[in-house]
């Protein structure tokens, strides 16, 4: 291929458009990396509506990882202490089919679990749902999005009657006040931040408020940084609401016509006077008042959040409490306004549309709604009652199921839970107990591969065709432009092949991913995420489009069509919500604080997060030289005052311990990190990046310390905070730097 291809960046939920050029260009030498692998050149796609040609270091270097450390052939072993042996696809798939049949007979369908990923394309997600929920009769499909944004899903659903971020990126350039809470947007969603930053710099009246215990790059750019104590978000939000109400910055017409349940909320926020809130949050009273004033005086307020809100034992309550502020001031459904959840993964949004969590079904339907189940069953042509009425196991409940022996087959695809799950030692022990783990991934080695009985090589982004949806609901076709290595296959093809071998031939007879997508969009018809007017062909010829995009639109063409898609950039512009009475719901929550709060023995709060260059567990970015140089090793941020008390100096090795809930135990986990002493962190809080698993660094796994206590509504674990103790130790720091062992397959 000599022509360029347009596609979407496969890293974060910003979803930037990329243009890739083949390694061989006429008249030029082949572009190669140091190991001689051909490298595709990547640049931003100026025509992509979400990113307008911009791209960050991850997107710009993505092609450098594509050839390295790839899993090329199916592999099997009978037990975890044996080496893998290469097998044919036939042998691997037969073993999986036999195991599925055995588990169905001996344990029932609930003994089967699949743990998928926001790296999936929508077609992969859809086929996995159809197989598990529709034909195997279990809702035990969950994705790593459970750890990322399920609180946002729950919050939107409960407040608005349906999931779906109501805003678009254009709002970043139309707002008068951006309120960023629990998001280091500058590093984790850099191109979104870039758009906001340009607007903010150009317009002196535009305010930017950042709420974060760390003085991140995002906070540095703000007019007002509220470095609240971890776990006090709801105190802060209720305190702002208290002041908005006291000062009369409320939209009573909007509240009367479009919302419900304000009185109960007003009663709760009455308990959050500013003096008390400032004290609880550890911020200055005048800063709290300034935040309320900025919000109240601004015509158009846009809030942005990500994991800092979602990864919490009260994640849904936090999201809903933030939405309350928009409902009070009528900041929704208009340009430059709204509560905007930034998704972590490139196609976490597509997963939501395809029903890719244990509690949802395709087309923004939910498992516990009998009508929704019946609609999906009818569509799939399976007997009524096939889809269980109860949600399936969430990510962490799958781990618990391995511990109790209730999970007889664990199928992991496109994710690395042996690094990314909370309480990683416990997770790893549970994985050791798994009687049958299938691990389907593009890369080898990974930390999770060590716990698999069967390895299935997956074709990844660039090697298969499918669609992905970004945080602003823009759907982009990602065409195949390279051949997969060895015998790797697209995820959806693997799932469909297993389904056919199980005897479900009729439901899975797809010849291409375009056919899969054609079926998927039909199931969205009439739903909030209606994409029934989209197809691979349409997206291929027109370029990225935003949903809702109902089937009646394809009759429109050219400017008329563009106009129609533009007028639907935002949800709820008619101020009617997806609840039965069309009104949005206020929610009244008191702050519960952290599930694992500090005390005398564990006096610090550990928070974890991402760095600008790295992506998740480094499966790709750890193999890219430029990014490795940018972020060579893990570290722990400590405030100078805390460091002095503990006698810790820059680069000293610090042992970090978190607590077990059983009183007799000595600690849940231990990690060792070089100290980075910085004023950027609030005293009493420490920060560790989450990217280093066992392959990349010894004893520096952030999730060795975290716990699985989850929000009771979204069931998203509180990865963002746990109590720890610190101690300076003296061992050679070289042991922290470790190259991953080379692939053996
Ligand atoms: S901001 Fe996100 S989507 Fe855009 S290039 Fe960077 S990693 Fe990719």
Strand proportion, as a percent range, falls in: 15-25%
Which runs of at least 5 residues are low in confidence (pLDDT < 50)? 741-745
Which secondary-structure class do the elements indicate?
alpha/beta
Nearest-angstrom radius of gyration? Answer: 25 Å
Helix fraction by DSSP (H/I, runs of at least 4): 25-40%
The rough form would be described as globular
Q: How many structurally independent domains?
A: 4
CATH T-level fold name of the largest domain: Rossmann fold
Query: Averaged pLDDT, please?
Result: 94
CATH architecture of the largest domain: 3-Layer(aba) Sandwich
**Ligand inventory:** iron/sulfur cluster
CATH class of the largest domain: Alpha Beta
Give the biggest beta sheet. Answer: 7 strands, mixed
Q: If helices are DSSP runs of H or I spanning 4 or more residues, what is the number of helices?
A: 25
Total DSSP E strands: 28
Which sequence of strands runs across the widest sheet?
5-4-18-17-16-6-7
- How far apart are the termini? 28 Å
């Amino acid at each position: 291929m000599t022509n360029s291809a347009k596609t979407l960046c496969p890293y974060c939920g910003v979803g930037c458009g990329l243009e890739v050029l083949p390694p061989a260009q006429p008249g030029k030498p082949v572009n190669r990396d140091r190991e001689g692998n051909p490298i595709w050149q990547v640049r931003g796609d100026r025509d992509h509506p979400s990113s307008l040609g911009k791209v960050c270091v991850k997107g710009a270097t993505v092609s450098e990882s594509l050839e390295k450390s790839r899993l090329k052939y199916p592999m099997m072993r009978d037990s975890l202490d044996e080496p893998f042996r290469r097998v044919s696809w036939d042998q691997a798939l037969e073993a999986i089919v036999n195991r599925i049949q055995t588990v169905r007979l001996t344990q029932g369908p609930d003994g089967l679990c699949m743990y998928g990923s926001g790296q999936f394309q929508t077609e992969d997600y859809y086929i996995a749902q159809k197989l598990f929920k529709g034909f195997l009769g279990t809702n035990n499909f969950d994705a790593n999005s459970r750890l990322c944004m399920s609180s946002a899903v729950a919050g939107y659903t409960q407040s608005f009657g349906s999931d779906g971020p109501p805003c678009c990126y254009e709002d970043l350039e139309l707002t008068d006040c951006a309120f960023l809470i629990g998001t280091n947007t500058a590093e984790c969603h850099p191109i979104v931040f870039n758009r906001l930053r340009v607007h903010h710099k150009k317009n002196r009246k535009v305010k930017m408020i950042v709420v974060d215990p760390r003085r991140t790059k995002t906070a540095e750019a703000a007019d007002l940084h509220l470095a609240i104590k971890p776990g006090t978000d709801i105190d802060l939000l209720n305190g702002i609401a208290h002041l908005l109400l006291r000062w009369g910055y409320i939209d009573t017409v909007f509240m009367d016509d479009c919302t419900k349940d304000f009185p109960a909320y007003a009663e709760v926020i009455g308990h959050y006077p500013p003096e008390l809130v400032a004290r609880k949050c550890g911020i200055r009273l005048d800063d709290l008042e300034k935040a309320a004033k900025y919000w109240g005086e601004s015509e158009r307020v846009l809030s942005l959040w990500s994991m800092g809100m979602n990864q919490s034992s009260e994640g849904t309550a936090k999201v809903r409490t933030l939405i309350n502020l928009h409902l009070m001031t009528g900041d929704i459904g208009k340009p430059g306004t709204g509560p905007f959840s930034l998704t972590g993964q490139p196609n976490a949004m597509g997963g939501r549309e395809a029903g890719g969590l244990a509690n949802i079904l395709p087309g923004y339907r939910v498992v516990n709604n009998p009508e929704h189940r019946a609609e999906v069953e009818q569509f799939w042509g399976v007997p009524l009652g096939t889809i269980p009425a109860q949600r399936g196991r969430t990510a962490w409940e799958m781990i618990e199921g391995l511990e109790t022996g209730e999970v007889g087959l664990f199928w992991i695809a496109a994710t690395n839970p042996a690094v990314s799950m909370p309480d990683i030692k416990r997770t790893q022990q549970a994985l050791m107990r798994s009687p049958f783990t299938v691990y389907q991934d593009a890369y080898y080695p990974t930390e999770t591969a060590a716990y698999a009985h069967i390895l299935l090589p997956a074709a990844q982004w660039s090697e298969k065709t499918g669609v992905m949806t970004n945080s602003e609901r823009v759907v982009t076709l990602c065409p195949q432009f390279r051949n997969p290595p060895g015998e790797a296959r697209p995820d959806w093809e693997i799932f469909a092949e297993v389904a056919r071998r199980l005897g479900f031939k009729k439901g899975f007879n797809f010849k291409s991913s375009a056919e899969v997508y054609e079926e998927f969009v039909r199931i969205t018809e009439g739903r909030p995420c209606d994409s029934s007017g989209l197809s691979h062909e349409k997206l291929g010829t027109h370029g990225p489009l935003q949903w809702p995009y109902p089937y009646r639109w394809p009759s429109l063409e050219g400017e008329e069509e563009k106009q129609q898609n533009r007028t639907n950039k935002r949800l709820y512009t008619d101020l009617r919500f997806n609840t039965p009475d069309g009104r949005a719901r206020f929610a009244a929550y008191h702050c519960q604080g952290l599930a694992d709060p500090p005390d005398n023995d564990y006096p610090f709060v550990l928070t974890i997060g991402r760095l600008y260059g790295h992506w998740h567990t480094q499966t790709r970015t750890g193999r890219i030289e430029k990014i490795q140089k940018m972020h060579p090793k893990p570290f722990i941020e400590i405030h100078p005052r805390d460091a002095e008390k503990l006698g810790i100096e820059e680069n000293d090795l610090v042992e970090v311990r978190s607590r077990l809930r059983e009183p007799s135990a000595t600690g849940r986990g231990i990690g060792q990190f070089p100290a980075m002493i910085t004023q950027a962190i609030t005293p009493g809080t420490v920060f560790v990046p989450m990217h280093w698993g066992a392959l990349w660094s010894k004893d520096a796994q952030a999730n060795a310390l975290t716990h699985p206590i989850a929000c009771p509504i979204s069931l998203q674990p509180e990865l963002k905070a746990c109590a720890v103790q610190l101690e300076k130790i003296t061992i050679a720091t070289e042991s922290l730097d470790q190259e991953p062992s080379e692939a053996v397959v």
